[in-house]
Each structure stands twice: as C-alpha cells, then as structure tokens.
Amino acid sequence: MLRSPRALVLSAAACAAAALLAPAPSFAAGYGDVTGKVVLDGKAPDLEPRVEKGAAVKDAEVCADQPVPNFSLVVGEKGGIANVFLYPAMPIRDIKPELKDAPQEPVVFDQKGCVFKPHAVIVRTGQPLELYNSDPVAHNVRFTSFGNPGINVTVPAGAAPGGGKGVEVEFNRAQRVPIPALCDFHPWMKANWLIVDHPYAALTDAEGNFTIEGLPAGKHRFTVWHESAGFLDQALTVEVKADGTTELGELKYKLAAFKNLK
C-alpha cells in the first residue's frame, strides 16, 4: 500500500522526536576514579589572624570573641594544602550516566563566628545552595557571576541550618574560575564558589587530599586553582584507568606560587 507524502513526513518527524528523547549513547571504554594530594613544597608561612581577639571591629562581641583565622593559605600538619580546586580544563561530554543529573541535596553555606563555612564550595548548575547564619548578628552574602542573577541578600541573625530560615539560590550557568562570596558588613569575610555543569570538580580537604569519581577512561587535562595563586596548573594531564583508581600521588607547589597571600 502506498503511503501519502503527509504520512511519510509525520513518520519522519516521529522518528526524529524519538531520537531526541532517546538517552545519549556512552562512548567511554569504562570509567575510573582519580586521587591525589596537593602539597606545599617548603615551610608554611605563619599568617596573622584576619581579626585579633578583642579587636575593635563591627559586632566585636561575636566577631572578635576569638581570633578569626587567615584562610588565604591553609596547610595541614604534613604539608597538604586545603581549599584547592581541581576541575577539567576542557569540557568532558561523556559523563558517567548515573552522575549526569545535578544532586538535589543542597549545599549548605553557613556564617558562624563571623566566618563563612565552608571557605570553599563547589555547586552544580541546578543544585540548591542554601545560605544560613548561625551568628546572633546579621550578615549579608554578595556574589556576582557571569550569566547568573547577582546575589546580595541579608541573612538574618539566628537563621542556622536545621532550624533557621535560610535563603536558597540556584545557578544556571557554569563559571571558568572560582568567584569570591563576600560579606559587606564584615569585610574580612570571604569564601570562594565554583559553579560547574558536570560532576568532575574536586576540593582538597584539610590535609590536601582529593578524589574525582567516575571519569571516562582516557587522557584528560585539569586546572588546579587556589585563591592565593590563581592558576597553579592549567594543563595537569591525567590518564584515567577504566574500572580502577588512578593515583597521582603528591602534586607539589612552592610557596612562591602563592603570590597573593594577604
């Protein structure tokens, strides 16, 4: 039986629509994890606190009750550097299927003792970021990024996680580098947020350790970034093994690289 031209057009359109709705095929020859440690090659500097105990600052009864640490370079007992961001230098399109969707569990960002906690944050596009304030004084959070609505909100005193009424925000556009979040009420308060549209970014912990899970097997280049250095490396090349863990060992950087220490 002959089919009319209109039926053929409708059939072709239906096939095209089905192709668009079908899951994207995976071309990776497996997936693997990467671990490593970012280390200071040399002696850690002795940095002065941002705020001394008893200093005459705004809301001193809270903000100067204890010294406010200097987070511009945090080095662990064995030389590991905290708060280092590692993320792909080029987009990775072949994302492991179970990691494609952004987590719906929110990232919690608090203000306690006139300090942002945590000091460094990775949040994915479409993932909630909840702003809180555990202090008995008001704070604001100001953050500006390309392609996303600006944030400049006051978070009321006592709006603590788990009970207080925080402020929820989301982002729809990834950024190339981490961007500072600031409090205008207390100018020493600063954190760094990296907005990504993939699951392959990591932050070093207090001892400099990091893990990136579920990378497609093969060769990838990574950016290594720290607030007091900017780009520590923009071409860290990693050969990811399928179905296993690729251990990078120690990535060492000299103190001279951290040229923006304050």
From TrEMBL:
Q: Is Cell inner membrane among the key words of this record?
A: no
Q: Do you know which InterPro entries this protein is assigned to?
A: CarboxyPept-like_regulatory (IPR008969), Cupredoxin (IPR008972)
Q: Which UniProt keywords apply?
A: Signal
Kindly indicate where the leader peptide sits in this chain: 1-28
Q: Domain of life here?
A: Bacteria
What protein am I looking at?
Answer: Rhamnogalacturonan lyase domain-containing protein
- The protein's organism comes out as Alienimonas californiensis
